């Protein structure tokens, strides 16, 4: 296995760029976490009344945990198609920021190849990729595809498993499955915080984001809350960082 | 095993508005240089987004602030954070969160 990878790397990438298989491997630690979230999403979607085919379609072309949870909830509540799509647009606008944060590492690629990288971008793969960039100061394209495609297949399998088993779970909340998403975000946040050397500034940014997210959600809407919190808290972090 | 017309359009629409923010900055920003302050700003984005999402999940229920001891999700978040810090394991964190909330709901 080790030899195989070494051969693959030396053959395909002359200047020790991380390989596709290395991307697959670096995805492994996150697989079980997202398997449980994907499973929970499948169960919640099934209990919301979606068919297995609809759940498969969602996981293949939508491929976004928070959006799928929201879609399931709003479809079950009988919301209009327009309001569901607008809510998901707002929630997923954060991908703009994740995508922008990765863009410096793929500047040398064509727009089409950048599109392929971005189309499978998630909070999870972003977290792993940013850690990689912190370690190596660059991200290899094939490594990124290995990471993305592994996470994508894992998510599809988890969703379908949840959908198939969901018919026997009448009340997913009694199993705590609705907590899979916040718990995942807690894990990702803590890992990000611990991997950086800016603990004090990061905590300030996090607390400001919490206050704004809660305040704006109560006064206006939760989706605007996430966007406002992100914009303001990141800006304050940038200013503090500049001063120090 | 069918896809209803309504859900088909909801999923297509949701997929489009998810796809565009994912790919657009990667496609366009490759053409332009991001200044140092921009990079510094982007550095804080993941911390801010995740904190905001966690806060909404934990503190807000049905559009209202829930800070009482009846809010089991806040209590479940404590062991979840603790395990995340101690183990640095995503799987351990998610499993701890799910089991904590399940037990809290069972015994409360």
Automatic annotation (TrEMBL), chain B:
Keywords: Membrane, Transmembrane, Transmembrane helix. It comes from the Bacteria. The chain crosses the membrane at residues 6-29, 41-60, 80-104. It holds the Pfam family AzlD. This is AzlD domain-containing protein. It comes from Paenibacillus monticola. The lineage of its organism: Bacteria, Bacillati, Bacillota, Bacilli, Bacillales.
């Amino acid at each position: 296995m080790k030899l195989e990878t070494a051969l693959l790397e030396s053959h395909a990438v002359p200047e020790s760029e991380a390989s596709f298989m290395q991307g697959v491997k670096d995805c492994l630690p996150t697989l079980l976490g997202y398997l449980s979230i994907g499973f929970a999403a499948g169960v919640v979607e099934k209990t919301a009344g979606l068919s297995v085919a609809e759940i498969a379609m969602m996981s293949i072309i939508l491929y976004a945990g928070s959006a799928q949870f929201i879609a399931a909830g709003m479809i079950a509540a009988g919301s209009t198609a327009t309001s569901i799509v607008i809510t998901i647009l707002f929630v997923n606008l954060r991908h703009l920021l994740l995508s922008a944060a990765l863009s410096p590492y793929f500047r040398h690629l064509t727009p089409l190849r950048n599109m392929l990288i971005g189309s499978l971008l998630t909070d999870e793969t972003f977290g792993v990729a940013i850690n990689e960039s912190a370690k190596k100061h660059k991200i290899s394209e094939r490594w990124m595809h290995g990471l993305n495609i592994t996470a994508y297949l894992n998510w599809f399998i988890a969703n379908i498993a949840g959908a198939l088993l969901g018919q026997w779970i009448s009340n997913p909340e009694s199993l705590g499955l609705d907590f899979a998403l916040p718990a995942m975000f807690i894990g990702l946040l803590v890992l990000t915080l611990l991997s950086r050397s800016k603990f004090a500034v990061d905590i300030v940014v996090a607390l400001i984001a919490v206050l704004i997210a809660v305040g704006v959600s109560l006064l206006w809407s939760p989706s605007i809350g996430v966007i406002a919190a992100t914009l303001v808290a990141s800006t304050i972090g940038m200013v503090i960082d500049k001063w120090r | 095993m069918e896809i209803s017309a309504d859900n088909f359009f909801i999923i297509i629409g949701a997929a489009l508005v998810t796809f565009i923010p994912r790919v657009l900055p990667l496609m366009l920003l490759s053409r332009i240089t991001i200044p140092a302050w921009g990079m510094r700003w982007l550095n804080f984005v993941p911390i801010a987004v995740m904190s905001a999402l966690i806060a909404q999940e934990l503190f807000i229920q049905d559009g209202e602030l829930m800070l009482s001891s009846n809010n089991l999700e806040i209590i479940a978040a404590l062991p979840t954070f603790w395990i995340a810090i101690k183990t640095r394991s995503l799987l351990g964190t998610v499993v701890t969160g799910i089991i904590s909330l399940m037990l809290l709901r069972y015994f409360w």
